[in-house]
Design brief:
The complex is a heterodimer of chains A (about 240) and B (about 280). Chain A is mainly alpha-helical and about 240 residues long. Helices cover about 70% and strands about 0% of the residues of chain A. In chain B, helix 3 crosses helix 7, helix 4 packs antiparallel against helix 6 and helix 6 runs antiparallel to helix 7. Classes of the chains: A mainly alpha (about 240), B mainly alpha (about 280).
């Protein structure tokens, strides 16, 4: 029997951290109207000069709590372990994915903070840091895509009377994976839906991530509660 | 190279048609997870070769000794290839996960501590970021604005190639973890000689260190030692472990003792119903 003490703390940390993420998202001056890749070096530099405080505080918040997604993915990996598979490969896959997105996000986060550290730097350098930050942030999807596809596959393969997750969770994960695909090509255009401030690369991607977090949080909560009820009855 | 192996006795039997049997294997084959991870690995390495050598054309690497105008020209020549190619890299690099999971599984199947499997899994999952994605990001940013200050493009060029060639420890220590597990293993998951090939691979990460120091010659990032010999060893090593992993999957009996040998077509009794969890 696997020990489950503390599982609920990890689960309930998610909504608390999610509130911090949303606050930091709103606080960062370049997200609600995402910064355009067509801004000139001068415009980018003056943005960092004018908004220094909000850039710093929002990115410090993200730096503190960006890794908060990892426990959720590990909770999912632990549920995958309970599935009717012959090997632990699918849960290994999720563990292999867990660290990727926060690490890439932290790299982007550092570039934003570096840009805000000396906003009086030559505009060309601020623009370079801003480009590195936005490109890293936009293309951080590979592990998220893999995570969704692998989870979907794990659920399809979980063929038992009482599957760990219902099948719609697998379909949902496929949908999210598709929604994340365009962001991988976010650097191909400076204008339009694929640009890093575009409908597909920014809004669809980030809303998909948010929806995934909410839905998978609720699904995990239900699964864990049901599981604990069964264990309590058995004990 | 097919996923259809005998010895499966799931409730319904595979249909006659090829396509039907393929679909059946995908859903019911007792080794479906292993074969899935193996195929992802094979496809990943094919794509990796095509993307790095033919689409982005960043390999074989250009010289670190070039002057700035040549480097700007190099980026201009590859503008679309870099952006499209690395876009695909961003799309597919999650394929590393099943690959590393399979390699970790090979260590779990050995008679060694779980420490090996988990250490390898975490190290190699981490390795893709400094060893591949940082290069992809730096190249993408370099290609993004051809009118950027040439000196900055030059810096992105160094950043890209040095992060790619100069990320050593994760591969070095990762290879060593795997080879130590192989040498200690009593389950015959891999032949012992493969451990020494792993040592060769680990040594390539040692001899590449001077790439951080030299801008020309055999030790530079495009040199005879730091690139050509290393590439030959890496390709050999990878090709060999792909074959050996395939053999491991074929021999897998889902037990904990030594892996049985292949040739005599043993009816592996273990291939019971898929609903059984170990």
């Amino acid at each position: 029997m696997r020990r489950t003490d503390g599982e609920l703390i990890m689960l309930w940390a998610l909504p608390a951290i999610a509130i911090i993420w949303v606050s930091a998202f709103v606080l960062f001056p370049g997200f609600l109207h995402p910064m355009s890749p067509t801004m000139s070096a001068e415009e980018v530099a003056s943005f960092y000069r004018d908004e220094t405080a909000r850039i710093r505080y929002s990115m410090i918040l993200f730096n503190w709590f960006g890794v908060g997604l990892i426990p959720t993915v590990i909770l999912l990996a632990m549920q995958v372990r309970r599935m009717a598979h012959r090997t632990p490969i699918m849960s290994y896959c999720l563990i292999a994915c867990a660290g990727g997105p926060p690490t890439l996000f932290l790299i982007a986060n550092m570039f934003w903070l570096l840009g805000g550290f000396r906003p009086e730097r030559a505009p060309e350098l601020t623009q370079l840091l801003n480009d590195l930050a936005w490109v890293t942030f936009t293309v951080l999807v590979p592990y998220l895509i893999a995570q969704c596809l692998l989870l979907a596959l794990a659920i399809y393969w979980d063929r038992q009377d009482k599957p760990v997750f219902p099948t719609w969770v697998a379909h949902f994960n496929l949908l999210i994976a598709i929604a994340l695909v365009p962001a991988a090509f976010g650097a191909l255009a400076l204008n339009g839906p694929f640009a890093w401030d575009g409908v597909l690369s920014f809004w669809v991607k980030n809303i998909a991530i948010a929806v995934w977090i909410v839905v998978m949080g609720v699904v995990l909560g239900q699964t864990i509660r049901r599981r604990r009820a069964e264990t309590a009855v058995a004990a | 190279m097919t996923t259809s192996t005998e010895g499966t006795s799931v409730s319904d039997t595979p249909p006659e048609s090829r396509l039907g049997r393929f679909a059946w294997n995908c859903r019911h084959h007792p080794k479906r997870e292993l074969w899935f991870a193996w195929w992802v690995m094979v496809v990943f390495y094919q794509l990796y070769g095509v993307l790095f050598f033919f689409v982005t054309r960043v390999q074989p690497p250009p010289s670190p000794a070039w002057d700035t105008p040549m480097i700007v020209q190099w980026f201009d020549d590859r503008h679309d290839g870099l952006l499209v190619g690395f876009g695909i890299v961003f799309l597919i690099s999650g394929m590393c996960a099943p690959m590393n999971a399979l390699l970790a599984y090979s260590m779990r199947r050995m008679s060694v501590s779980r420490i090996f499997a988990y250490s390898y899994l975490i190290m190699y999952s981490l390795s893709a970021i400094p060893g591949m994605l940082v290069m992809a990001i730096a190249m993408t940013v370099g290609a993004l604005r051809p009118d950027r200050d040439p000196e900055l493009i030059h810096w992105l060029y160094d950043f890209a190639f040095l992060s790619f060639s100069g990320t050593m420890g994760v591969f070095l220590v990762g290879s060593v973890v795997w080879l130590v597990a192989i040498l200690l293993d009593k389950n015959n998951v891999f032949p012992k000689w493969f451990a020494y090939l792993g040592l060769c691979n680990a040594l390539t990460e040692v001899v590449v260190a001077p790439a951080w120091i030299f801008q020309r010659g055999a030790f530079a990032w495009n040199g005879a030692i730091a690139w050509w010999i290393n590439m030959v060893v890496f390709v050999t090593y990878t090709a060999v472990f792909i074959v050996l992993l395939r053999r491991m999957i074929e021999r897998e009996d889902f037990g904990t003792g030594p892996l049985p040998d292949l040739p005599d077509k043993r009816e592996s009794a273990s291939a019971g119903s898929v609903g059984v969890l170990r």
